[in-house]
Design goal:
single chain; 428 residues; alpha/beta; Urease, subunit C, domain 1; eight-stranded parallel beta sheet; 17 strands; 21% strand; globular
Length: 428
Amino acid sequence: MKILFENIRIPEEYGFADEHIFLMTDGEFISYIGRERPAEFDRVIDGKGNLLIPGFYNSHCHAPMVMFRGFGEDLPLWRWLNEKIFPAEERLNSENVYISSKYAIAEMLKNGIVSFSDMYMFENSVAKAVVETGIKANLSRSLVSFGENATIKGDWRFNESVEWINQYQNANNGRLRMDMSIHAEYTNVEGYIREVAEYTKDNNLRMQIHASESESEHIKCIEKYGKTPIEFFRDTGVLSSPTTLAHCVYVTDNDMDIIREHGAFVSHNATSNLKLGSGVARVPTMLQKGVCVTLGTDGAASNNTLDIMREYQLASILHKGYNRDAEATRAFQMLDLATVNGAKSQGRNDCGKLVVGNRADIVMIDLNAINNKPCFDTYCTLSYSANSSNVLMTMVDGEILYHNGEFTTIDIEKVTREFDYVCEHYFD
C-alpha cells in the first residue's frame, strides 16, 4: 500500500527547513520525500503541520519486567537484584512472560519505539509477542555460568539460546532477529565466556551484555582479573562480534578507545542508572571519542517506564548539568542516539533515517501540542519540550501499528485484562 503523508515537517538535516512537504511509503520502504505531491497513492494522511521522524530504538530492555514495575523500589543495584528481583524471577513461566511482553510492546509502540533489544529468559515467549504485534526486536537469552569448569556443552541455557536462534532468526520478514547474550562478567566464568564469544563470532551473531554498570562491578573485575570489564571482554573475544554494551557508567578513556576500535555500541540507560544510584555515564566524552552511543530504558522494574522520549530528554540535559557545561551535549546530536545509532546496534543498516529506500519506520510527533509551540528548531523541540504523549503515530516497515490512541495489531483491552490478572496473582 502506498501511504502519502502530506502537510508534514521533517528534521532540518534533510534539507527542507520548516517547509510542509510530502513523504510517501510503498510497502515496507520510504519511496518519496519532496515538495511535489505524488499523483498515485492508496491512502493519504494529513500531517497538519506535525513532525515525522525516524522511529525510536530501545537498545537495552528486559520487556517482561513490566510485571515488576514498582516492586523493590528505593534500593541500590545489588540489594535490588538479590533481595527483590532474582527471587521474584524464580516464579516466571512462558505464559506470564508472553502476556507481560505483549503489554510492554504496547507501551513501547505508544511511545514511538519501533524496535527494541531484549535480554531475558523465556525469549521464545517474547518472540511470539513480537511476531504477533509487528514490532521489530533483537532478542537474546541471557546466559550465566558459575562453576569454574562451566562449559557451553550440555548447558541448558546455552542450548535454549541456540534453539531459539535457529527457530526465530529473521522471522516475520526480518523484523525479529536473535542475538547471543552474556549477562555480565560478574555472573559468568572466564572459560564459559570465551566459548560463547567464539560461538557468536563463528555464527556471525551479535552480542548483548551488561558492562560496568556499577562502581563495585568495575573495581571487583580489576581485583579479580587485573583489567577492567571492557578490557576483559576484549581479551576473551567478546568484542570480536558486534556487541551492545549496556550501561558503561564506569569506563576509562582507554575503555572507550577499545569500544570504538572494535565497533561496539554503548547503550546509555540514564534513568535506570540514576534511580539505582549507579551514577552517570560519560556520554559527552564517548561522543567526542567517536563511540556509537544509543539509548535504552532497561527494564520497567528499574526505570520505571519503557519511554525512549524520556531517555532522550534526560540524556539531552543531564550531561549539561553534571559537567556544568551547557554545550556538553547539543540538541542536534541527540536524535541519532535515539534512532539510527540504535538501528546500527541491531545490524539494521537500512533503518533509522528518513531516506528514500530505507525502511518505513516512522513516528509522527504532535507539533500542535501546547507544550511544543512555537517550534523554531525540531531538534530542540524533541530534546527539551516534547514528550511521549505527543506521539501520534508509530509505523513499522510501512505498517501503522499505533495511530491516534488506537493499536492496529493489539487488542489492548484484552491484553490489559490478562496482564492485570498476572500481576494480581503473581505475588500471592
